[in-house]
Amino acid sequence: MKPIIELIKGDITKIKSDIIVNAANSSLLGGGGVDGAIHRAGGPRILEECMTIRNRQGKCKTGEAVVTTAGNLPAKYIIHTVGPIWNNDQEKCSQLLANCYKNSLKLAESLELKTISFPNISTGVYRFPKDLAAKIAIHEVKNFESDVVEKVIFVCFDDENEKIYKKLLKE
Ligand code: ADP
Q1: What tens digit of pLDDT does each residue of 49-106 get?
Q2: Could you tell me which residue ranges the Macro domain spans (predicted)?
Q3: Within 6 Å (CB) of ligand 1, which residues are found?
Q4: Parent domain of 134
Q5: What CATH number does the domain containing 56 carry?
Q6: Under 8 Å between Cβ of 70 and 77
Q7: What is the total count of domains within the chain?
């Protein structure tokens, strides 16, 4: 079955869903933007788990994803995925961003949980064009079928992304 798609404007740390996705960086050691917000709101446990993963496998490559528990957040797990830094190689960047969504959805499936929330990966400090990023995100989610994942939530923090998602999801 195809999961239901929902759009919410707001702060992903406040969203009640089984999984929230973090737009992490390859160090997995936290950063600004949504990454900083998740670590601040979720507490030190999340960083400890990220460090354990780092010690085991090294850095997380762009487009890949790892999972930790969610500390003090209402979610059960956090999937940390590393989006591409936009660099005008549209094809390569698009592929890598698509991988973030694909790999996160695959992980959600393997965790056997029903709801997953995504921020607008790469569209902040990593400067990925918002319209193109939204098209890729929606395309990947619409192509995803699952026996367990029932709902995918796009959490838009800024007005521009919200407007773009609203328009694209209507089409
Ligand atoms: P990246 O480095 O992947 O670009 P950023 O965190 O800089 O990551 O930005 C990614 C997106 O996350 C941006 O669209 C930004 O508006 C959004 N964002 C920032 N804080 C939050 C938050 N608390 N909840 C949801 N989205 C957020």
Answers
A1: 999 999 999 999 999 999 999 999 999 999 999 999 999 899 999 999 999 999 999 9
A2: 1-171
A3: 11-13, 23, 33-35, 37, 83, 119-126, 155, 157-158, 161
A4: 4-170
A5: 3.40.220.10
A6: yes
A7: 1
